[in-house]
Amino acid sequence: MLTPTITIIVPNLTGLAERVRERVAAIVEATAHATEADVKASMQHSGTGRTYRIGDVTRRMRLTERPGMRVWARQGQMVMRTAGGYRAKVNAAGTGVNIVIGARIHRASAPGEPPTIDTSALVNSIRSHRLSQFSWAVTAGSGEVGYAKHLEYGTYKMAPRPYMRPALERARHAFVDAIREAVRP
Asked: Residue 161 CB: number of other CB atoms within 10 A?
C-alpha cells in the first residue's frame, strides 16, 4: 500500500518572520496614534450638560467713555457703570478700567459623555508613546492634569465621563482585523 505524501514548497521563507514583525509593529504604532486622535476628537463636541458662566470678556475703556461713569458700593464691592450703561471694572493689574462686553460661557458634558474642552489642559495632556517594539501607551493627564482619572472613572460626587475606554473599544476591532491581515502570508 502506498502512502501519499504532500510536499509544500514555500518560496522566500527567509525573512518572512521579520516582515511580519515589522508589519505588526507598524500596526501597533498606527493604532496608538489613531486612538490618541480619536480621544481628542471625542472631546470636540458641545456637551449636553449644565451651562455656566466662566468669566468676563472685557475691552479697554476709551477716554471718551470715562466722563459719564458712575461709581457706587453694593454688597461690599465697587460697582462702576459707564454713561452708555456698560459695567466697568478695574483690570487685573490695577492700572486701568475695562468695560465688560460679555461673558465666556462653558457647556459641560453630561454623565456618560466625553468631557468637553474648557481650558484644553486635558486634551493637550493626551499623548501616545512607545514602550517597546510591540507596546505603545496612550496616556492622559500625566502629571499636569490631576483630574483626568476622575473624569474617566467618576468620583463619589460625580458620574464618570469616559473618554479613553470608548476610544480603545472603537480601535480594538480594526486592530484585530489589521493583525489578521499582517500574519497572512
From this structure: 22
Q: Which residues of 85-104 are buried (b: 16+ CB within 10 A; e: fewer)?
A: ebebbeeeeeeebbbeeeee
Rounded to an integer, what distance in angstroms lies between the CA atom of residue 84 and that of residue 73?
19
Euclidean distance between CA atoms 139 and 136, whole angstroms: 10
> From CA 47, how far away is CA 30, in angstroms rounded?
29
* Per-residue model confidence as pLDDT tens digits over 36-54: 999 999 999 888 888 888 8
3-state helix, strand, coil in the chain (%, to 5): 35, 25, 40
| Distance between CA atoms of residues 147 and 170, nearest Å | 24
Question: How does DSSP classify residue 1?
Answer: -
The Cα–Cα gap between 64 and 25 comes to 66
Helix axes 164-183, 16-42, angle to 10 degrees: 160
